[in-house]
Write a structure and sequence with these properties.
The complex is a heterodimer of chains A (300) and B (88).
Chain A: E1 11-17, H1 26-46, E2 52-54, H2 78-90, E3 93-96, E4 99-100, E5 109-115, E6 121-126, E7 145-147, E8 153-158, H3 165-173, E9 178-183, H4 190-204, E10 208-212, E11 214-216, E12 221-223, E13 227-229, E14 235-238, E15 245-251, H5 253-261, H6 268-271, H7 293-299
Parallel strand pairs in A: 1-2, 2-3, 8-9, 9-10
Antiparallel strand pairs in A: 1-15, 3-5, 4-5, 5-6, 7-8, 10-13, 11-12, 13-14
Helix pairs in contact in A: 1-2, 3-4
Chain B: H1 8-18, E1 25-26, H2 27-34, E2 38-42, E3 45-48, H3 49-54, E4 60-61, H4 64-87
Antiparallel strand pairs in B: 1-4, 2-3
Classes of the chains: A alpha/beta (300), B alpha+beta (88).
Chain lengths: 300, 88
């Protein structure tokens, strides 16, 4: 993982484990935005050539207990335009997570965006599993997979999403070779944060970049412990608990997922839809998800 | 003590690699690539790779595990047919 030793074909990311001010006003949002821009400059200064910068959930706004709905942004608002412009200026991709007020009048959507090195928003994902009952955002309906740098196919998930196995599986089945998990995961739930990232990776054979915030707000302390997890669920590297940090991740998501596809066993994304395929009564095909009681019962 | 031929999967992997068979692929494409390659299937038996593939049920393999699942399936069918014929 040394930053002096990486192949030009590998995706090099910096997970920015930062402290986010719990915004009650738009001035607070501007403060957070300034800090994001500082982190971006710091990351490219310290890790020249970096491909992707990843920021935690609600990096513009935090998650204020009572004022959150007053600080939602539109997608073309000044704070978001500023980080997009900074991506273009620094020639680096970025994942950011603002709370967005949609133009059509719906309530706030907890939205992750992927910005390319031209400053364009190339993917948008709305959190499918808001943290109930405290996060009254409008839920999304599906994951979004987009081409990222160095052959990556990036799916973003947000915090409480990680507690549900279906979304991890959907990321993989939609063709992602990398899950970027951004969160505002509070203490004392260190174990569940680690377990969710490792299980999501292992059950679906997909690497994970998990970035989590630190600091505190009106009610919680955010734990940090951002991590890089490989497609076997092993933690390659992790940031400390409770302090701001930049965690470097160097990996080849294409190769990791191709290795799974090239294996003669343990291709779980295929196996779950071809159960028992090698049984002589199954003709090499097996049973698919439509013949799986968990899914059938869930649909009724 | 009975001795069993336990490395047939290994030799199949090597034969597939020699044939440069990659996935996803159709059965027909796999058979074409198999050419004249022979695979050891028991201590004293060899079979053409092409023939082994021809006996697999699916016409399409999305990945290597799909292929090998079909291969194991075909092997068990063949083995149980032999046993059944012996019984009859």
């Amino acid at each position: 993982m040394s930053r002096l030793a990486f192949s030009p074909n590998e995706l090099r990311s910096i997970l920015v484990q930062c402290n986010i001010k719990s915004a009650a006003t738009m001035c607070d949002v501007d403060y957070n935005t300034d800090r994001i821009l500082e982190w971006m400059e710091r990351a490219v200064s310290g890790y020249p050539g970096v491909d992707l910068l990843v920021f935690p959930e609600c990096c513009f706004q935090g998650m204020h207990f009572t004022e959150y709905y007053k600080v939602a942004l539109t997608l073309n608002s000044e704070p978001i335009r500023r980080v997009c412009a900074k991506c273009k200026e620094l020639k680096v991709w970025g994942v950011f997570n603002p709370w967005i007020k949609p133009d059509d009048g719906r309530f706030i959507e907890n939205t992750a965006i992927l910005v390319n090195d031209e400053g364009e928003i190339v993917s948008k994902y709305v959190k499918m599993n808001p943290w109930l009952p405290y996060e009254p955002t409008y839920p999304g309906r599906g994951v979004s997979v987009a081409d990222g740098p160095k052959g990556s196919k990036i799916a973003m998930i947000i915090c409480a999403d990680a507690k549900y196995q279906e979304i991890w599986r959907e990321c993989r089945l939609q063709g992602a070779n990398l899950v970027v998990h951004v969160s505002h995961w509070m203490a004392p739930y260190v174990h569940s944060h680690k377990l969710a990232n490792q299980a999501g990776a292992y059950f679906n054979r997909i690497p994970v970049l998990a970035v989590n915030s630190v600091g505190m707000d009106e009610g919680y302390i955010y734990l940090g412990n951002s991590m890089v997890v490989d497609a076997l669920g092993r933690i390659i590297d992790e940031a400390p608990i409770g302090v701001e940090w930049m965690l470097e991740a160097v990996l080849n998501p294409t190769a990791m997922c191709e290795a799974v596809e090239d294996g003669i066993n343990s291709n779980s994304p295929w196996e779950f839809n071809h159960r028992g395929a090698s049984c002589p009564d199954m003709n090499g095909v097996g049973l698919d998800a439509s013949d799986y009681s968990a899914y059938m019962n869930a649909l009724h | 003590m009975a001795v069993y031929f336990t490395y047939s999967t290994h030799l199949m992997v090597k034969a597939m690699s020699e044939a440069e068979i990659e996935f996803p692929s159709t059965k027909e494409e796999c058979m074409k690539k198999a050419g004249n390659i022979m695979v050891q299937v028991d201590f004293d038996k060899y079979r053409p790779l092409c023939e082994i593939i021809a006996n697999l049920a699916p016409d399409y393999f999305s990945n290597k595990e799909a292929f090998f699942s079909a291969w194991v399936c075909a092997n068990i069918k063949a083995a149980t047919n032999v046993e059944s014929n012996k019984t009859n």
